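Justification of resources, computational component.

The compute hours requested in this renewal are based largely on the per-chain cost of generating structure records like the one below. Each record pairs the submitted sequence with a full C-alpha cell output. That output is archived, and it is also reused by downstream analysis tasks.
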Amino acid sequence: MSVLLLIEQILNGLQSGVMLFLMSAGLTLIFGVMGLINLAHGSLYMVGAFAAAAVASATGSFTLALIAALAAAALAGVLVEILVIRRLYDRDHLDQVLATFALILIFSEGTRWAFGSFPLYLDVPKMLSGPVHLPGGIAYPAYRLAIIVIGFAVAAALFLLIAKTRIGMRIRAGESDREMIGALGVNISVLYTAVFALGAALAGFAGALVGAIQSVQVGMGEPVLILAFVTIVIGGIGSIRGAFVGALLVGLTDTLGRVLLPVAFGTFMDPSAATSVGAALASMSIYILMAGVLLFKPTGLYGSA
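The structure output for this chain reads:
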C-alpha cells in the first residue's frame, strides 16, 4: 500500500469520526444530563437528512437544506421531549428503551408515508464537488474535507458552550445535581428541552451532511446509532471531550481496519482467504477496541465513576 493511499484512508477515517461525533455528542449530553436512554436519536438523524433532501430538491440550495435539517430535527426533538420523553425521566431504563423504540417505528412509518419507500438523493454543492490538492500530491474530495473541518469547528464550539458559558454551567450542574439547580431557580423543564433540542439538531445536521454522500432512506439512522453508543461508551458517558476522542478512534479503527487487515493477512495467506478473514476481523475491530478500553478504564476514557 502506498503512503498516499494510507493518508487518504486516514482522512476518510477522520471524516467518519467527525460524523460519529455529531451523532454521539447529542446522545451523550442527553444521557449524561437527563439520564435518559434515547434509542430514537437515530430517527432524528433521519429527519434531518429527509428535510435537507426535500428542501434541496425544492430550492436547489445546499445551505438552505442544512438550515432546514437543523430546524426540522430541533423541532422534532422539542416535540418528542415535550410529548413523550418528559414522562420518562422518573421511569426506569426499560420503560425508556421501550418508549423510544416505539418512537423509531413511528418516525420510520411516518417518513415512509410522507416521502415513500424509495431513497432520496442530495447533491454535493458545486463549489465542493471537485477534489482538493493537498501537500504531497494528495487529491482528496473537497466535500469530505469540508465535513472534517465542519466537524472540528462544531466540536470546538460545543466544548466552549459547555465549558465557558452560563448555559453550559447549568447543563454541567444538571448532570451533577438536578434537584439542587432546580432549588436555585433554574427551570429544569426548559433546560432539558433545550438540551434535547441541541442533541437532535446535531443529529439532524449529521444526517444532512451524510445525505450528500449516501442515499437518504428510511431506517438510515439505526446502524449509525449503534456506532454512536459504542463511541460514548469508549469516550465516557456525559463527556463531550470523550465523545470527540471516542468518535475519532472508532472512525479511524473502522476505516483503517477494513483497508489494512486484508493487506496484512495477505502477506501469509492466499488473497481470497486474506480478504475474507480481514473483512470479518475488521467488522469486529471497534468492539475489540471498546473491550480493550473498558478493560483498563471501566468508565470510558473521560467518564467519571
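The beta strands are 131-134, 138-141. The chain has a mean pLDDT of 86.
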